[in-house]
Amino acid sequence: MSVYQYPLEAPVSLRRLITVPALAATLACGPAKLTRREAERDIRQDYPVVVSVRVAESARAVKGSPEHARLVGLQEALSRTGWFAVSRSAEGDREQFQFKLKPQAPKTIRTSASGFELPAAEAEFVRILPRLETTRDGVRVTYLIRLVHPTDLFPVFLALHPGVRVGETKERHASYRLQGRSWVLMDTDESFKKAL
Fold this sequence. Notes:
This protein has 196 residues and is of the alpha+beta class. The protein has one domain (33-194). 26% of the residues lie in helices and 41% in strands. A hairpin with a 2-residue loop joins strand 3 and strand 4.
């Protein structure tokens, strides 16, 4: 006599009880992925920024050095604005440059303990580049900014950065770190402050 045995099958309700929690656990514990849209939303909030030139009240350099040529170019650009008094004095093989703000200078030029900060233009956010690079600590996002709205002090910026053009784009980078299930913008390599 042969006995036919039915394969052991779990009842339908038992299969559902196992499948639903397994699916939910897979979805909940799966890796969160940073999207370009999320990164763009976060980074766009920090723009536009004011592109400024920092000028030390006093600087010295060896005559004939690249730093000396840069200071001479800065002196000429600041003298053309009419808002700075510039003096130079020789000290052996070095030359001392003194920059002083005149009373009729605009209030947009800020003074600090070590010198002056001149607003030259603004930089606006353009877009996120397609590549999001995974790093050991999180994700590195590359994005573009564009130089716009030059001020009267833009020639001073050009004296220090001769290859820069208005409307030109430049890459910047932001780093994100996963905290829990959310991606958090940790920092960017933008060195300028948000325009008010």
